[in-house]
Amino acid sequence: MIDFNSLIDQHLHRELREKRVGRYWPSSVGMCLRKAWYSYKQPKETPVETLRIFEAGNLVHDFVAEVLRSEKTPGIELLKSELPFELEEDGFVISGRVDDVILVKAEGKTYLVEVKSTKSLAYQKKPTDSHAMQLQLYMHATGITNGVVLYVEKNTLQAKEFDVPYDEAAAQAAIDRFRALHKALTEDELPAPEAKRVKAMKWMCGYCDWAEECGATGTPPTIDENLVRL
Ligand code: SF4
Q1: Which residues, in sequence order, are bridge partners of residue 24?
Q2: Which atom of ligand 1 is nearest to the CA of 193?
Q3: What pTM was computed for the model?
Q4: Which of 29, 30, 154, 225 has the most CB atoms in a 10 Å sphere around its CB?
């Protein structure tokens, strides 16, 4: 019998590539700072279960691009389905291809749409903080001020969208996160376990490849915050 799971795993497998301190991926802006630090200092291969989730997200993104490109949806024009990104700051650079956003034109306006796949739309009453932060960073770099976070439910293809207008202070706060990460890496200081402390980020610990290392340092009290504090 053909083992399709094994074929998928082989197809998705990626060699471990060490990250260079001083170069940061824009999409990691909302990641727990401690987790981001570990990903540089103690890199690990991404588990195949995580790669499968990423790939499902890519498939949803491609589907949305196909819908927007289609001749059957003339009210909207797909301008780009991914963007190059580069922001130079003091001593570090935030760069990489941004492949979860789509640039569209509708009713005479240009929109930056960040596409996220989700298991369920039921509890999505607003954009997740890390997604809104990512979008602020993209708008800051591109100069486009109309942002939309679009959630698509994976098993029904139902969608829910939220307008996120550009906010310069929020974009600067996003850049400051990379500044804090860069400082912690260059000074070799382990950041606080951010996702354990901030209630809205706690879910991240369930998907963290460094949970064991992090757990060894103890569990701090939770603080009930929606926005990330450095
Ligand atoms: S276990 Fe949670 S707090 Fe610790 S590094 Fe991972 S995501 Fe961050």
Answers
A1: 94
A2: 3
A3: 0.88
A4: 29
Rounded to whole angstroms, the Cα distance separating 176 from 171 reads 9
Q: Which residue is closest in CA terms to ligand 1's atom 7? A: 205
Q: What angle do CA 214, 219, 220 make, to 5 degrees?
A: 120
Question: Each residue of 77-104: pLDDT tens digit?
Answer: 999 998 999 999 999 999 998 888 999 9
Q: Which of 164, 201, 184, 132 is closest to 24 using CA atoms?
A: 184
- CA pair distance 212, 114, nearest whole angstrom: 32
Single-letter amino acid, residue 195: A
Question: Are the beta carbons of 45 and 17 closer than 8 angstroms?
Answer: no
- Please report how the helices 4-12 and 48-69 are oriented relative to each other, as an axis angle in degrees rounded to 10: 80
- Quote the ligand 1 centre to 30 CA distance (angstroms): 12
Q: What 3 state SS string does 176-196 have? A: HHHHHHHHHHHCCCCCCCHHH
